[in-house]
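Hello everyone,

My group is preparing for a crystallization screen and wants a predicted model to guide construct design. The compound we'll soak is flavin-adenine dinucleotide. Before spending weeks at the bench, it would help to have a computed complex in hand. I've included the protein sequence and the ligand's SMILES below. Output in structure-token form would be ideal because that's what our pipeline reads.
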Amino acid sequence: MNRTYDLIVIGSGSIGVPVAMEFARNKQSVLVIDSLASPGQGQDKKAIGGIRATHSDKGKILVSQRSIEIFSQWKELYGDDIQWQANGYSFPAYREKDEKILKDLLKIQQNFNLNIKWLSPEEYRELNPGINMEGLRGSSYSPEDGSASPLLFTQSSYFKAEGYGAEFRFNETVTGFEIENGNITSVKTDKGLYYSANVLNAAGAYGKNVSQMAGVDIPVNPDSHEAGICEPVRPFMGPMVVDMREASGSKNFYFYQNSEGQVVFCLTPDPPIWGIKNRATSAFLPMIAERMINIMPVLKNLKVRRTWRGQYPMTPDGFPIVGKMEELDNFYQAVGMCGQGFMLGPGMAELIYRLITKSYYSDDLEILKNFDPYRDFKGQEIFK
Ligand SMILES: Cc1cc2nc3c(=O)[nH]c(=O)nc-3n(C[C@H](O)[C@H](O)[C@H](O)COP(=O)(O)OP(=O)(O)OC[C@H]3O[C@@H](n4cnc5c(N)ncnc54)[C@H](O)[C@@H]3O)c2cc1C
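Reply:
Good plan to model first. Here are the tokens for the complex, ready for your pipeline.
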């Protein structure tokens, strides 16, 4: 007789792997299916590893705060080094309007008890000595934010998930569902048919396609971003730098030095590049190199090792889509993580466990409202 799982997860990425671990840890049977050859091979490995709780809304703040607790205790709890470092985030402001946005946001963030403050240019230079002081008005600084390796974290979570009993099927693509009386009765792949009480769409940039297989449309679209990494050098940087200014061909960009001494960087193209094409362009590196050297001239001697392109699974308002679908009794979404799926992952996995098992904490329903699949999508996350 065919086995019926408590949960089938479609996608073994930033969300699917921690979800599998959480379910298996709680003794639920879980199967994860992914088209690719091993965990984290979708957008997860494209992430540059930035982790912050300093968002602008309660949902993302609380989920990320829990993620930070998990990332920061990972080595102690599970023995694996995921290169976590609490290097912090900073948003240096060179324009009056950016200073105002950041200072207004800072009040909201402090109301959520986030450790974030405003630094004068001189105070900021103490943290990031190479910063361009010309026109610098100050910077926000959140010392408890940080960074870790998506690759190491997802690998470690995968092995823990397997250890707890989760099953994974790689090189296998979900192609459809069998549906009866408003319920998904089985998940079809190119290799077989699987049965489960509940199904979770965690297919990232392909979340819309997977959802459409169940007859449900959701607004998640792949938005290409490029990134790169330098050769390691001795530690010289403090917090992650996020430059909010626009320039020709790009919006904001951000970079930090990881625990191995490599500077990792990423840029938001303008206009956006929609769709899934994974070849890095020749335009990206000259564009970001000029901008990085402008804001931190000391970077000019770094050697770039490689660049790559990936996709943010974007929603129109910049908030994730997490919740149960009304059209089907046992179909859940955990998609649309935008540029923050890695940092949200472990905290979101616990929230998804409580959602599916209906074992809510007091704040959960309020948090989930922000991620409601049926919201009007007219709002805007300030830093999506
Ligand atoms: C350049 C770049 C830099 C980034 N930097 C950061 C950062 O610093 N911090 C941060 O938090 N986030 C960052 N992100 C965003 C982050 O990578 C994503 O938000 C996150 O990986 C999304 O997680 P996910 O689990 O939804 O999707 P993924 O990790 O992509 O996982 C989805 C999985 O579903 C599988 N799948 C899809 N369709 C099917 C199907 N039909 N059948 C079977 N399997 C299927 C895919 O193969 C894939 O493995 C960055 C992204 C990019 C591109």
